[in-house]
Amino acid sequence: MAKIVGIYNNKGGVGKTTLTLFLSDFLSSIPIDGRRSRVLVIDFDPQSSCANALLGIEKVSALKGQKLTLPHALKSQLDRWAQDKEPVNLGDYIATRTESPSVKTRKTKLGSLDVIISEAEAALDFEESTTLEDSLYLAAWVKEGLSARYDFIFIDLPGNLSKRNGFALVGAFLADYFLIPTEPNRININAIPLTMKMLRNIRAWRGSRNDFKLLGFVLNKADRRTKQYKLHKDALMQFANMADCKIYSSILPPTPKLSNATDDSIEYFTLSDRYEAYYDHVRNIVAEVVQDLGFSVNKRTRRTTPNKSVSAGQG
Ligand SMILES: Nc1ncnc2c1ncn2[C@@H]1O[C@H](COP(=O)(O)OP(=O)(O)OP(=O)(O)O)[C@@H](O)[C@H]1O
Ligand SMILES: [Mg+2]
Question: Does residue 252 have its Cβ closer than 6 Å to ligand 1?
Answer without folding.
Answer: yes
